[in-house]
Specification:
The protein has about 280 residues and is of the alpha/beta class. The protein contains 11 helices and 10 strands. The protein has one domain (about 5-280): Aldolase class I (TIM Barrel, Alpha-Beta Barrel). Helix 6 (about 110-125) links the parallel strand 4 and strand 5.
C-alpha cells in the first residue's frame, strides 16, 4: 500500500459516526509508536506534522518514512501537514508527496481566509490532495502560532456554511472551546454549536486541541459530528517523561536505542487508548 489522502478515511468516519485520531509526530520513534499502535488496533491513522516538524525532520524523510509504514502495515495511513500558514511551503509539501494538508489562515480576516483557502484547494485538488482549513480561532500554542485564550473565537455556524461553499474545502476545523497545549482547567465544549454546524455542513468536522479533553467529552463530540481528533501534547509528555525516568535510573546511559525505546512504548500506549476512545479500532 501507499500513503493515502484523508478523503475516504474521514468520509467513512462521518458515515459511521466514529473519528480517526491524527497524532503529531516529531521523529522516527514517534512515527513508529503511532503506526505500531494503529496496526495493533487495526485502525486507519493520520500522521500529522507541523511545519516545524517538517523543517526539523526533513520533508523527504517524513514522506519516505510514511511510505515505508504504509508498505509494512496494511491499514490506511495518511501523512498530513498540520497548521501551515505558508502557502508556498504547503505547495512544496504537496509536490514532495504529502496527501493531506491544512492551510491555516484562521488568523486572517474572513475574506482573506476564504481567498487563501480557495487558492490552496484549487492547487491541491490537481494532485488529488485533500485540504483542511480552520474557521474560528483555537487558543493556545502550536509551533510558532500562539493565540491567547481570551482572543480565541468560536466558529459561527452560518459563516462555516458560507466558507465551505465558497472554498470547496474537504474538511473543516472548528473552534468550540478547545485549546492547543496543556489545560489548566477542564475545557467546556460548546456542544450546541457543534450540533448546529454539523446539521448544516456536509464536510467532515475536525477538533483541534484534544489533548487533555476528557474521554466522555471527546466521545460526545464524535456523536455530534467530529470525524478527526488532533492529539499532540498528550503524546509528547509521556514520551518525554519515560525518557527522563530512564536517565534517572540509568544516569550513565548514552545509547539512544535504550533511552528512546521506553519513550516510544509510552507513546504507543497513548495511541492505542485514543484509538479506542475515537472508535476507529477495527475500521481499517
Amino acid at each position: 500500500m501507499d500513503i493515502v489522502s484523508t478523503r475516504e478515511i474521514l468520509l467513512d468516519a462521518k458515515k459511521n459516526k466514529y473519528a480517526v485520531p491524527a497524532f503529531n509526530i516529531h521523529n522516527l520513534e514517534t512515527m513508529q509508536a503511532v503506526l505500531e499502535g494503529a496496526w495493533e488496533m487495526k485502525s486507519p491513522i493520520i500522521i500529522a506534522a507541523t511545519p516545524g516538524t517538517v523543517n526539523y525532520a526533513g520533508m523527504d524523510y517524513l514522506v519516505a518514512m510514511a511510505k515505508v509504514g504504509a508498505n509494512r502495515y496494511s491499514i490506511p495511513i495518511a501523512l498530513h501537514l498540520d497548521h501551515c500558514p505558508d502557502v508556498d511551503f504547503l505547495k512544496k509539501c504537496i509536490i514532495a508527496g504529502f496527501k493531506s494538508v491544512m492551510i491555516d489562515a484562521s488568523l486572517k480576516d474572513y475574506e482573506d481566509n476564504i481567498r487563501i483557502t480557495k487558492d490552496v484547494v484549487d492547487f491541491a485538488h490537481k494532485y488529488d490532495v485533500t485540504v483542511e482549513a480552520e474557521l474560528g480561532t483555537v487558543g493556545g500554542q502550536e509551533d510558532e502560532r500562539v493565540v491567547d485564550n481570551k482572543d480565541a473565537l468560536l466558529t459561527d455556524p452560518n459563516r462555516a456554511l458560507d466558507f465551505v461553499k465558497r472554498t470547496n474545502v474537504d474538511s473543516l476545523a472548528i473552534a468550540i472551546g478547545t485549546a492547543h497545549g496543556v489545560y489548566k482547567l477542564e475545557p467546556k465544549l460548546d456542544f450546541e454549536r457543534l450540533k448546529k454546524i454539523n446539521e448544516i455542513i456536509d464536510v467532515p468536522l475536525i477538533l483541534h486541541g484534544a489533548s487533555g479533553v476528557p474521554a466522555e467529552s471527546v466521545k460526545k463530540s464524535i456523536e455530534l459530528g467530529i470525524c478527526k481528533i488532533n492529539i499532540s501534547t498528550e503524546l509528547k509528555i509521556p514520551f518525554a517523561n519515560s525518557v527522563k525516568k530512564y536517565f534517572e535510573e540509568n544516569p550513565t546511559a548514552n545509547d539512544p536505542r535504550k533511552y528512546l525505546t521506553p519513550g516510544k512504548e509510552s507513546a504507543k500506549k497513548v495511541v492505542m487508548n485514543k484509538i479506542e476512545i475515537c472508535g476507529s479500532n477495527n475500521r481499517a
